[in-house]
Amino acid sequence: MNFRRGANRGSEAESEELVFEEKLVKINRVAKVMKGGRRLSFTALVVVGDGKGQIGMGIGKAKEVAEAIRKGNTIARKNMINVVLYKSTIPHESKAKFGSAEVLLKPAVAGTGVIAGGGVRAVVEVAGIKDILTKSLGNENATNVVKATMLALSNLKNPRDVVAARKAAQSSEEVKISG
Hints:
- The chain has 5 helices and 8 strands, in the order αβββαββββαβαα.
- It is of the alpha+beta class.
- The strands form 2 sheets. Strands 1-2-3-4 form a 4-stranded antiparallel β-sheet. A 4-stranded mixed β-sheet has the order 5-6-8-7.
- The chain starts with 10 loop residues before the first helix and ends with a helix.
């Protein structure tokens, strides 16, 4: 017999839990000068995704690198967003700005691969996008580039939804004109 507390509770949830891919984008060492000398701490920028259009980003801060990465991972899982995918790319071009970092994302033909660098590549790969053209404009700050990429991906719209909305708007205009 199993006498552990809650032994049967988590078995079903563990089998259904999604497997997330985790990418460490940047580790930053921060030194705080105090009376006794320098106090070191670390910040970790982590991107998490399921490869099917769900992505999240988190920044963890701690006195040790491993703990900062763990915290970043936890925060990223809490801040997940859904991204609209079209086959192995994105449905349309998207441009977004966060701070002074600007990112341009363009859909690409199958077989192109991921043409991206740094933080943009990490976000796009964990989202499950296989073919995309990107350009990072403006500042190169990793945190702002990742946030701009997340913003650009969240601005994507499903083409079917756009067509349906246009048809609905057009039919309501026809009713106003005839009525």
